[in-house]
Design brief:
The complex is a heterotrimer of chains A (300), B (136) and C (270). Chain A is α/β, with parallel strands linked by helices and 300 residues long. Chain A contains ten helices and 14 strands. Chain A folds into two domains: 206 residues, P-loop containing nucleotide triphosphate hydrolases (Rossmann fold, 3-Layer(aba) Sandwich), CATH 3.40.50; 83 residues, Alpha-Beta Plaits (2-Layer Sandwich), CATH 3.30.70. In chain A, the strands form three sheets. In chain A, strands 5-6-7-3-8-9 form a six-stranded mixed beta sheet, sandwiched between helices. In chain A, helix 3 runs antiparallel to helix 4. In chain A, 48% of the residues are buried. With 136 residues, chain B is mainly α. Chain B folds into two domains: 67 residues, Arc Repressor Mutant, subunit A, CATH 1.10.10.10; 44 residues. Chain B has a two-stranded antiparallel sheet with strand order 1-2. Helices cover 69% and strands 6% of the residues of chain C. In chain C, helix 3 packs antiparallel against helix 6, helix 3 runs parallel beside helix 7 and helix 6 packs across helix 10. Chain C starts with a helix and ends with a helix. Classes of the chains: A alpha/beta (300), B mainly alpha (136), C mainly alpha (270). Chains A and B meet through helix 5, helix 6, helix 7, strand 13 and helix 10 of A and helix 1, helix 2, helix 3 and helix 4 of B.
Chain lengths: 300, 136, 270
Amino acid sequence: MMIAIQHLTKRYGSQAAVSGLDLEIERGSICGLLGPNGSGKTTTFKCLLGFTRPDSGTLLIDGKPLEPATFERLSYVPERSALYDWMTAAQHVELQRRSFRRFDAARARELLEIFRLDPNKKTKRLSKGQQTAVALVLAFSIRPDVLVLDEPASGLDPIFQRVVMDLMIDAAANGATILFSSHQITQVERAADHVAILRQGKVVLDGVVDSLKSDEKIVEAIFDDAVPPVDGLAHDVRVRRLERSGRILRAYVRTDSDAIARQVEDLHPRSVSVLDLNLEDIFLGAVEPDNRVEPFGEIR
Amino acid sequence: MTPVFTVDPRSGVPLYLQLIEQVKRAVALGTLIPGEQLPTVKALALDLTINPNTVARVYRELERDGVIETSPGRGSFVRPNGEPGARRTADDVAERSFAEAVREARALGLQRPDVEALIGRLLDRWYPLADEEPKT
Amino acid sequence: MSYPELLRVQRLLLVFTIIVAIPVVVTVCVGFFSHGTVSTGAGAHTLITSYSLRDSIAEQFTRERKSVPFFALESIAGLAALVIASILGGFLANERSHTPLAWTKPVSRERFALAYMGVDAAGIVASFLIALVLGVFGIMWGLGMIRFTTVDPDVWTTLLLVGGGAFAYYGLVRAASQAFPERPSAIAGASWPILLGLAAMHAAPIPTALHDIIVALNFLNPLAYFGRVESNGSDTGLLPLAGPLRIACLWLLAVVYGAVAVVLYRRAEA
C-alpha cells in the first residue's frame, strides 16, 4: 500500500469532520475521492499531510508515518490557492528549485508552457484557473511518487481539465500513486481506477470503478398485475434498496445482479431487465440513501 | 494503422469491457491485423484519457483470451491466430450483441416463437439464400 | 525554502534604504550648497564672508571643542533596526495562508522556522548597517561632522545592547504573533506603545504592588534593557542589573523568545 489510512478520526469541537475513515491506495493507482461538501475530504488530506493532528487513527505513506523526508517525493495541490500573491510563477518555481533535490527545471518549463502561463506575472494578476495551473506546475515539477490533489481542476477550462487528467495518467503510468478529490464525477470515471465515496466523515463505498459498475445494477421487473410480496429480496444483503409501484419492481443491487434477476424471474413477471448504473448513479445512491426522494413507494 | 478506439466513461458499462469489446471487434473486422503492434499501455491511456491500470487490465484479459500476446520489452501484438482465431473472436463479439438483443426482446415480453420469427426475418434480409445482393 | 522570506526582506530593505536615503540627500544638499553670510566690521569697512552650513558647524565644533560620541550614532541606527525587527517579527505568522506550500517541503518545521528567522536576523543586521553607514554617516558627512566623532570604549557595549535589543524585540513579536496568528501586523504595531508604556511606568509614581508587577514585566521587555552602560561603571538602565549582566540577560531573552517562537510554530496546525 502506498497510502494507508486506518480508522482516522478528527473532531473540531464536538463535530467529527472525519470519523473512523479507512482508505488504502495501491502503488500506481489513481484514487478519486468523491463526496458532498463537508463529507471530510479536505480534513482527510490535512491529516494525511500532517497539517493537523488526528484524534485517532494511523496514517502511513509507503508503510511509514509522515516525516519531513516524505515530502521529497510527495506533492500536494490544495483546493484554494496557497501561492504568494506578490510572487511570480517563476519565483514560485525558484522556491521549488531551492526546496527539492528532485526538482526538474526542464519539466517545470515544459509545464509552464503546457498551461500557457506567463512566468513573470504576479499571482494576484492571474485568474483562479491560472493559479491552480501554477500550483500544478509546482506539484508535477518535482516528479513526485505520491500526489495528493484537492480539486485539481477547479477553475480550469475543459481543455486544461483534460491536461490535468493527462498529467495524472502520465504520472500514474510511470508508477506514481495519486489521491484526488473532485466534484466532477466524469473526471473520476476517466482518470481513476479506484474510487472512494465519502459521506459524513466515513467511506461508504470504496472499490475499483469498473468493478463497481459491474456489480451495482438495477434489476427492474414489470408484472402483469400488482407486484407480489418480495420479503426474501427485501432482506437480501445484496439488495441495497427496493422500490415498487403498481406493476413495477426495482431492486438496486450491490452485487450478483444475475442471481437477483433469476430470483425475480421466479416471481413470474412479464419482463425482467438489468440496467447499468454509471458512477454518478452509484455515487448518488451511496451518499443519499436516507433522504433521496423516492418516485416509488419504498419497501424498506 | 491503429484503429481509433473510443470509450464512454459515463456509461454504466465498465470501461475495460468497452475497450476489450472494441479491440476484439477491430481484430475480427481486420482493422487490427495479426502481428500488428498495439500502443503501449501508457500511450493508449493518454490517447483515451483513461486510467493506465484499466488499459493494463484490458491487455491482460485480451492476452488471456488469446487475442494478443505481450512480450516484455517489445510490447503487445495481435496474435497471429489465423482464420479460426479471428472467427472465434468474431463469434465472441457477435454473441454479446445477440445476447443483448435477445434479452431486450424478452424484457419487451416477446415469446420464443416471436423471437425466432424475428431472427428469421433478419437472416433473410442479411443472409439471403439466393446469391443476390443484400437489400439495404 | 525560506526564499519568499528572502524576497520579502529584500523588498523591505529596499524601501528602508530609500527612506533612509531621503534625509541623507537633503542634508548633503543643505550642507554643501546652502550658504549663509556673516558680516564683520561696520560702515564702509563691512566685510561680508560667505559660509556653507558645513563650515559654520565645523567652526562651532572647533570653537566649543564639541564632539559626537560614536555610541550615540550606534544607538540611532539601533533604533532603526528595532523598527525593522518589529516589522519582520510578524512575517512568519503570515505564512499561515501559505501552509500548503510551506509545510510540504522536505524539512522539519523547526528547521523551516529557524531558516526563516535566520533570514530575518540577517535582515535586521543589514538594516542596522544601512542605517549606520548610509543614514547616520551620510548625514554626518553632509554636515561635515564626521571628523568630530569620537570613539570611546562604550562602542562595543552599545553594539551588544542594540543588537540584543533588536533580536529580543524581534523574538518577542515573533512569539506573540505565533501565539495569536490571526493578526500579526496588529501585534507588531501594538508592541511599540505597550513596551514603551511598560518602560515608562517603571519610573511613574504608582502603588508599590503594581510597581513590582511592572518591574517584573520589564525584565521581559527588551526596551527596558536600554540605557547607557559606561566603561566607568555608571549605568542609566531601568533594571537593577549591572552592565555586563544586563547585556547577557538581554541576549538570553532574545534566545528564549526565539525558541518559544519555534516551539509555537512546530505545534501550529492548519
